[in-house]
Design goal:
The protein has 139 residues and is α+β, with helices and mostly antiparallel strands. The protein contains 3 helices and 6 strands; from the N terminus they run H-H-E-E-E-H-E-E-E. The chain has a 4-stranded mixed sheet, with no helix packed on it. Strands 1-2 form a two-stranded antiparallel ribbon.
């Protein structure tokens, strides 16, 4: 099922009654042993726009998102993957900024790499092989 563009763009036209949705977005929290370096990476390397929530605390805008629930043995594990339409091009663009990606790992649902953050954490980056809930925003 594909949502109308108005729903994906944050407009309040997602239902017939024109009632504003209660949930209008998602806020992702990444924990880091070097938050300043990881914030600089998001700003300077990935080029994400941000707002200062006060005292230099940056909150970054993300592209449209989707959420999936996978079965697990225990609760509390979460992963963050950025999506792209051309993984090879993204890997090359990141390499030009001195960012190394892991080897490409193929799954039935996508081609995946891991990006090491300056603070030691990692972000996933993948090119989906499946339909996405947000459509194709890059094309």
């Amino acid at each position: 099922m594909s949502l109308p563009a108005e729903c994906m763009m944050g407009k309040n036209q997602c239902n017939e009654k024109k009632v504003p949705p209660m949930i209008f977005g998602a806020h992702v929290v990444l924990y880091s042993t070097d938050a300043a370096a990881d914030r600089a990476f998001l700003r300077d390397v990935l080029g994400l726009a941000s707002v200062d929530a006060g005292h230099g605390w940056l909150i970054f805008a993300l592209p449209p998102a989707e959420v999936a629930i996978h079965p697990a043995e225990a609760n509390g594990r979460h992963e963050l993957y950025l999506m792209c339409n051309d993984l090879s091009a993204e890997i090359s663009a990141l390499a030009n900024k001195a960012v190394q990606c892991s080897e490409v790992h193929e799954e039935r649902w996508g081609s995946i790499v891991s990006i090491r953050l300056p603070g030691g954490g990692a972000l996933g980056l993948y090119q989906p092989k499946h339909p996405t809930a947000i459509g194709d925003f890059a094309n």
